[in-house]
Amino acid sequence: MLSVARTALRRGFATNAAVEGFNGAVGNTPLIYLKHLSEKTGSRIFGKAEFQNPGGSVKDRAALGVVRDAEDQGLLKPGGTVVEGTAGNTGIGLAHVCRARGYKCVIFMPNSQSQEKIDLLRMLGAEVHAVPAVAYENPANYNHQARDHAKALPNAIWTNQFDNTANAYAHYISTGPEIWEQTRGELDGFICSTGTGGTLAGTGKYLREKSNGKTQIWLADPPGSVLTSYITSGGKLTERSGSSITEGIGQGRVTDNLATFVNDISGAFTVPDEKSIQMVYELLDTEGLYLGASSALNVVAAVELALRLGKGSNVVTILCDGAYRYQSRLFSKKWLESKGLESSIPDHLKKYAVL
Ligand code: PMP
Description:
This protein is an alpha/beta fold. The chain has 16 helices and ten strands. The N and C termini lie far apart (47 Å). The site of 4'-deoxy-4'-aminopyridoxal-5'-phosphate (PMP) has 18 residues, from helix 10. It catalyses: O-succinyl-L-serine + hydrogen sulfide = L-cysteine + succinate; O-acetyl-L-serine + hydrogen sulfide = L-cysteine + acetate. One of its GO terms (molecular function) is cysteine synthase activity.
């Protein structure tokens, strides 16, 4: 354990001692016992409070991980520029890290993402290109545009969060060890959704190794993602179809980050948007937690996994970010109606839809 903690410290993740700047404050988040949901299921369900990272999401860990890795390799030099394609949270993490370490930051993101994230990135000093949301196969995809932009710019790097395994490694040396310590190794299941797959692969790999394979690692998907069918079919990749209200998760391919762990995943299932949006409201009403839709999806999945593993099981998931980044959507009656989700909110929870 000590050597892992030392590695984490060397790489800039938080410890209990005083910390230095933004980078030092990343990680070491609380593990929250979700009381009401645990009592309902007869198991113990915990959420890792990643919304408490200084940039407000789980992606601060990956952002710090890829920047430090690029520095270690001599790819990123003082005064350089970091370019990334992102649904928003990695960009927000990178924008903070770049300010703290003196780099410029250029972000390419699909224009389907919430205005709150675009505004915040600009306020953090990033140059933002909100580009049409097209599939990965299309050369105009935000990720390819980020790669090409970095190539054309002097002293710039593309951090390539999807296929740069420094992302998963950041979770292997921080999120995984923290959860293991916080649960004292008494952990039956870990489940979360994936965008790049870094959180699931890095955390899952560490927990599986430490538990000698006893902790089951599951993947939860939003509608429109192909990973559940990939895993349950034993490796067949299907065409991506359908969409979800969740942001930052769902995938049409096995990224290099996910590939580092995909064969050790115990199982996968899809969570419908109706259940995720209902959980956004339920978490607020019963646990007092104001969380985004990917966190809500993860909690729905953790409850489902706890039921599958049986009464008394301990299950951990990730609370990726707060609802602040999506409130103009998630708490707007009009928006809920436009997505056909108004009827998914039980009557006693409708009072929270105040926008
Ligand atoms: N939730 C949110 C809100 C995110 O922005 C992301 C990252 N895009 C994830 C979950 C998934 O994390 P990862 O990229 O590590 O799979």
